[in-house]
Specification:
Elements lengths: L3 H8 L3 E4 L14 E6 L2 E6 L2 E2 L11 E2 L4 H13 L6 H13 L5 H15 L5 E4 H4 L8 H11 L4 E4 L3 H4 L4 H7 L2 E4 L20 H8 L3 H5 L5 E2 L3
Parallel strand pairs: 1-6, 7-8
Antiparallel strand pairs: 2-3, 4-5, 8-9
Helix pairs in contact: 2-3, 3-4
């Protein structure tokens, strides 16, 4: 259940690629944990995984066999958002997905992202990188992005502004291929929250449980801009 900036980019896209065939980060990562807001302040909820120290792709990461994590995550969400205006409307959907989760992290993440996008009224087509790169699994970095853009018939690519996002961009290639590059320029919006002072970079679930149908317009309350030529 990623943060607002992730869904800002998703909502602005016709096609959004889920990277399931890249390496699972060996350090602490948001791939299997997100930040919510508990009564005592920001709090991480985590899906425990096995083999996280190995060099494996996200698609190969397995969720720990002990199902007690499901009860812990759902209890934390329930207690943290018991007074949220839209908890009864949206938490049952999250509960159903988590309770039915198997041992594949990518499937759980994909199911949650798809469901959340639907609650935001998204018409974006979600596709997996592993499907688009089935015949070119060796691709990484710049070449992988270029392959994905051509495979989806992209005419515009929305990119984050971090060093990590920009290091795989070849501006000359974009000009040659006639693909317009846009920087996301995401400015985190403020919205009503529980439990004290406003906190940024929380999971999208915090926004949805607090703001419900207004969540989409809150996420879309800033604009992307074309990258300089």
């Amino acid at each position: 259940m990623p943060w607002l900036g992730y869904f800002n980019k998703l909502l602005r896209s016709d096609v959004f690629v889920l990277f399931d065939d890249v390496q699972f980060p060996r350090a602490k990562t948001v791939v299997n944990r997100v930040l919510i807001k508990a009564p005592q302040g920001p709090n991480w909820i985590t899906v425990p995984v096995t083999d996280k120290g190995d060099l494996v792709s996200i698609r190969d990461v397995r969720i720990a066999a002990d199902p007690s994590w499901k009860r812990k995550v759902l209890r934390t969400l329930g207690l943290s958002y018991a007074r949220a205006p839209y908890v009864k409307r949206y938490l049952p959907g999250v509960t159903e997905i988590i309770e039915s989760a198997g041992d594949e992290l990518w499937r759980l993440n994909g199911a949650l992202i798809t469901w959340l996008a639907q609650q935001l009224g998204s018409h974006t087509r979600l596709v997996y990188s592993s499907t688009l790169c089935a015949d070119r699994p060796e691709l990484t970095g710049t070449e992988k992005i270029q392959h994905l853009l051509k495979a989806t018939g992209a005419t515009v690519y929305i990119s984050g502004e971090t060093v990590g996002s920009q290091r795989h961009l070849d501006l000359e290639w974009f000009q040659k291929e006639g693909i317009r590059l846009e920087w996301q320029h995401f400015q985190h919006p403020r919205y009503p929250q529980l439990h004290g002072a406003f906190e940024e970079r929380l999971s999208i679930i915090d926004l949805i449980l607090n703001c419900g149908p207004q969540s989409r317009s809150i996420i879309r309350s800033e604009s992307t801009e074309a990258a300089p030529g």
